[in-house]
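Quick question, first post here. What does this chain look like in 3D?
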Amino acid sequence: MTREQILKSAVEIVTKDRENQYGAPEDNFGPIAELWASYMRARCCAPGADIDICPEDVGIMMALLKIARIATGQEKPDNYIDLAGYAACAGEIATGGAEDAEAQ
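> Answer (accepted):
Ran it through. Tokens below.
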């Protein structure tokens, strides 16, 4: 796949398919962040440790998952498409892009 094809596929997925299946990232990543933080507190940290996972962190950590799959698996275009999509979702949440689009 070319970079243009990867990016066009990512656009299609994060702006149409993903929205229809899971809702907007800014709505969906918040509950995921809360669940991950709760799990980390219970399983990975000293008692009373403060864990704060933000919604944009979900996008970044999912991108890291895709990077790990790329590093250890078979070549699969889907991993690159998803990597671009997760980065776009995280960037939009972090920069307030969704709120900017709603205001227009």
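The two ends are 34 Å apart (CA to CA).
Helices lie at 3-22, 25-43, 55-72, 77-95, 97-103.
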